Amino acid sequence: MVIFTKKTAWLMMICMMATALMCVSSAVAADKKSKGDKSAGSYIAKVNGVEISNTDLERKFNLIKERYASMGMPLDDAKLQEFRKNILNSLIDQEVLYQESVAEGIKVDPAEVSKELANFKKQFETEEAFKKQIAQMNFTEEVIVTQITRSKSIQKFIEAKVMPGIVISDEDVKKYYDSHPDEFKLKERVHASHILVKVDPKSPDAEKDKKAALKKIEGIKAKIDKGGDFAKLAEENSDCPSKAKGGDLGFFERGQMVKPFEDAAFGLKPGETSGIVETQFGYHIIKCQEKKEASTLPLDEVKENLKNKLKDDRFKETFPAYMETLKKKYTIDIPKDESASQPAAKEKAKEPEKK
Q: CATH number of the domain that 266 lies in?
């Protein structure tokens, strides 16, 4: 079954604030320049006279290198050069989009920015941890607020000025639906609940613990057989986090659970409870809530989500060309040592008229 998203990867890359510390834009340079700080380093590009500092590029470049190195995937010189070129182009695109959003009169509600900042801070255990992290990366909260504001402005510009021009017809939707039948197929699914009594195979007294766990699960099973409430018994006895929901695991397909558990669950009829099932995690009692046979989602049910997906796909396809056209309105200067690594030097153009 296809998974739909409302926002494209492009839009998320440009606008999502959860990665504000990693997706560095020229906000840092602009902030330092406004304070007369000359420590930002030489610029690597100018967009209508607004500098994008080398510090911005190097910070993001180093983050990428560190990320790949941490995954045991060091990058060769050719790949590093490619990343550097892509980062520079990305920073230029962001600056162009921000300036265009301002020219189009896009406004950002300060309350939205505050909410986004608060959400970002939630990634850290404490306010002190947040401040320590951003200090290590030469950021301030003020700079992050600036970045959020700029990215929100770009997001609103794209949603208001670009996305409305992308039209997906009902015929486009049906054509895709008919030509990709496998994406709309649902496998057989079962909705089950369970009670787990864990067994730790690494325990010094593994055999003793296993016997104790088996005795406990047998006692629970006896209560169920006498009419005991499954959900209540799960809440009181299960070692699985699902106990908070009475042991409810929701729907799952084959291949999502370990095989002994899966075989038992799919072998039950709705309303039926299993015997004691042993897996690598311990002992389970499983209750089948309902089952759904393999089926195909009807077009009417997926139409709106599919239309959003196709619109997102069209956006990804057309946005690079849109950006190249938009950049022709701007004067983009790249120093010789940077432009040498670019596919082609950008032509200077007249500054766009303010609206």
A: 3.10.50.40
